[in-house]
Design brief:
The structure holds three protein chains of three kinds. Chain A has helices at 6-11, 76-84, 126-136, 141-154, 170-182, 200-217, 228-234, 252-257, 262-268; strands spanning 37-46, 50-60, 65-69, 91-96, 99-100, 111-114, 188-192, 220-225, 237-242, 245-250, 272-275, 278-280, 283-286, 289-292, 307-310, 316-319, 327-337, 341-348, 351-358, 370-374, 381-383. Chain A is of the alpha+beta class. In chain A, the strands form five sheets. In chain A, strands 6-7-8-3-9-10 form a six-stranded mixed β-sheet, sandwiched between helices. The relative contact order of chain A is 0.13. Chain B is mainly α. Chain B has helices spanning 3-46, 63-68, 79-111, 117-129, 132-143, 148-155, 169-194, 197-207, 210-238, 242-247, 255-264, 269-296, and strands at 49-50, 56-57, 71-72, 75-76. In chain B, helix 9 packs antiparallel against helix 12. Chain B is globular. The model of chain B is unreliable at 1-7 and 299-305 (pLDDT under 50). The model of chain C has no long low-confidence stretch (mean pLDDT 89). Chain C is mostly helical. Chain C contains eleven helices and no strands. Chain C starts with a helix and ends with a helix. Chain C has a single domain (57-263), classed as Orthogonal Bundle (MetI-like fold), CATH 1.10.3720. Classes of the chains: A alpha+beta, B mainly alpha, C mainly alpha. Chains in contact: A-B, A-C, B-C. Chain A binds chain B through residues 43, 88-91, 103, and chain B through 1-2, 5, 8-9, 12.
Amino acid sequence: MTETSTAERHSQRRDEPHEGARPGDDAAGSERTASAIHMQGLHKRFGASTVALDGVDLTIEAGEFFTLLGPSGCGKTTLLRILAGLEEADQGRLTIGERDVTEVAPHHRSVNTVFQSYALFPHLSVRDNLAFGLKMRGVDRAEREARVQRIAEFIQLGDLIDRRIDQLSGGQRQRIALARALVCEPDVLLLDEPLSALDAGLRSQLQVELLRVQKRLGMTFVFVTHDQDEAMVMSDRIAVLNGGTIQQVGPPREVYERPVNAFVARFMGHANLYPISARQGLRVTTELGELELEPDLATTEQGSGELLLIRPETLDVRLGRHEGVNHLIGRITERLYRGSHAEFRLTVGDTTLQATINNRGRRLPEVGDEVTLVVAPEDLVTVAN
Amino acid sequence: MTDTAVLGRSQGMVREARHLLFTVSPGAAWIIVFLVLPSAYLMGVAFMTNGPYGLPQMPLSLDSFKQLAGFGFLGWSPGNLYTLLRSLWQTLVATGLVVIVAYPIAYYITTCRAKWRPIMLLLVVVPSWTNQVIRTFGWMNLLAPGTPLSSVAETLGLIAPNMGLYPSNFAVTLGLVYNFLPFMVLPLYAAFEKLDTAQVEAAQDLYATPVKAFWHAVFPQTLPGLLAGIVLVAIPAFGMYVIPELLGGGKALMLGNLVANQFSGGSNWPLGAAGAILMLLATFAGLYAMRRIGKRLGGGEEVVI
Amino acid sequence: MRKRTLKRGLTAFWWLTLVFLYLPLAVVVLFSFNAANSAASMTGLSLRWYHQLFANDQIMSAFGNTLVLALTSSLIALVIGCLIGYGMYRHRHRKLGWLIVLIYLPIVLPDIVFGISEMAFFVKIHELTGLLGPGLGTMIIAHVTFQIPFVALIVYSRFVGLDPSLFEAAKDLYASPLKRVVHFMLPTIKPALISAFFLSFTLSVDDFVISFFTSGPESATLPIYIWGAIKKGVSPEINAIATLMIAAVALAALASLVVNRRKA
């Protein structure tokens, strides 16, 4: 587990799309302060044998869009439910802002959740759903109505406010669920795969909307998803979980391009991974042959269990035989044309690998063609097994 | 795990257990005190001796079971045995007839337009919402001597002159069929509604004749509903009291009447209790058998009502 | 061609069955307006049986007993059954087989066994303690016993049909346990509570056997009164009470139809 210092983490933000726009700075007219979350040694077990969380230490910065990413059963939902107070950790501490909330009941925490199924109350209108949290908190009627009206306009659903829940479309329900949580102005907003029930088009539209809302309010968002594309689009930082432990924490580019281990490498996208059989300085030997690494990446760990990672899109595919550093000769066995790009399956000797090239109208190699694969030393990464 | 964690978890468990106790115990206690205990007491009564005024007293004995089997002061008589056999026979015949009527009705409802179906089901069920005594009384009016139905039966030579269709075994069967028809239509309708028509089409494709298609594709799919219906009809029919009492006119008694008469007449509680035990055994045996058959046929959960 | 014959046959059978189902009720209604004191022939129309009905104190008190019994028992069963239904839902992951058996027991037990068990038990308790003498009290106890399972199962199935996250959403939105009951659970299961109440009420009015064995000298309900009248020799008044009860059921059926329509 790599837990880098805060300073380092911020220096790695260089490639973020929101460069310079620290969340909270441009939170239109909002003077609220977002809260940071600290988790320390969280353990959770279900029954005697199922370990959901096996010692999680994590700090989520105030105002951050933070994503918990992992396959089903990795513990991401359990972690989110512990943050919400819907599940109690067996062990460990949890603080939100300055307050230790480890044993605080959910209705006493300033945390709200957008549920995967939206969980809108079927017996209430949109308006009463939005007002529910405020009413439970004892906010008086006049202020309640004003805040409900404001939030409904904020999410541009003011005209639906008197509808029944069963009269809403999926996308509308999703927005109402978001608004119902936001209207309470919690310190932290938790989102449990909130977009997974929507179709692809609506989903990407709402991704953008969600991101805008978060930037405007400067609220701390903790987002759970199993979809690595969604995680990369949305997040300031991602924590990749597997088997109840955190594998890696970092900004999207770092997690995708510099994964710490084979699991993260595979989970974030297609990965050509090869065991390193020998290593001499910057030269590594794998079943593909000898390849040269970039000087920076000659990591300190030189154990035998290491793997070489080549992402498919870092490979340049040239027709014919060419000679040079990190040049591999292979043959195309399969081609999948996908419009904007094409995927190739190739064999180099007895080894198979996958390559992706952008489609720029040039001639694409055919199945059976002999090609040269070129990979730049800086695109090669070694990862732990 | 630290001590505090263990503590926290056991506190949670205590809280959950208290919640379970709070929600479930009033109802559970009610049923235990007012049904399980009384039934247990009744079973105890069956093993006691009949005292004066028909009330049970010590010592314990098996007299009541002997009486139930027909051994009385005057030696063995077949009366009780006849009653028992009549109960079984009536239950079998009535259940069979109910199936024969309900099956096409349930199917017919599913073939009608969706908006009519709830109304049609309601039409089938509504008569059973009226009191059993009233419904039976209606049949008494219809079947009494001198009514048009009785006259028709008389002219056809089905019954002796001036006898009327009631009271008779036939009237009891009719009353049972009438009473239990809705209980068979509802589960069968549910089964038909879920029917996988692709299977029927595949069967028509493979077996060609409608009869075979029905037997291989339709019937097995409706079996869970049929079994559920049989449980709902046969078990209460076996213990029926009102219908034989009113439509049988004392000539067509069933087990329910035998049992009830030992209590209402105050004649012999232990004997009545022994009859009740028999009825309970039959009930549980019936439920168990249906469950077994249902499971074997892969009906699974639906059969378990 | 063959299909059409089948469909025609089925349609005819359907109407025949409806006649079968409604004929006995129709006869009761018809004879309630009979001018003659006969169950076999109609001589003319009259309302005399209805006049006699309202002048008959026994019938009026039986009517009152029926209402009190049905209302009281349904309300008690609603509270107890609702709690047990929620308990079954909330703890559905535990092993509650014993509870399921207990809940199904009143449903599967033959009426007659149910009735005489309670009667024998109440008599014994009365003998020992002087409590639970036969009357409306014992009838209410017996009715609640068979109503609880129906309420519990209706409430339970309503809860099972809900999205489990709703319970968490209520917690998440600052509702304390009490507020969750008042502002979330009760309003959400309101339709189930209403239909459970009506079912309990109907079951109570519909019951004869269990009432018969648990009733006392002063607590005859309408079905018990009718039973007695039939046994004593048919009095045409019975047709009139029965007709009123049939009318009540018909109204209930219409109401349920309207409610269903509005839902759809």
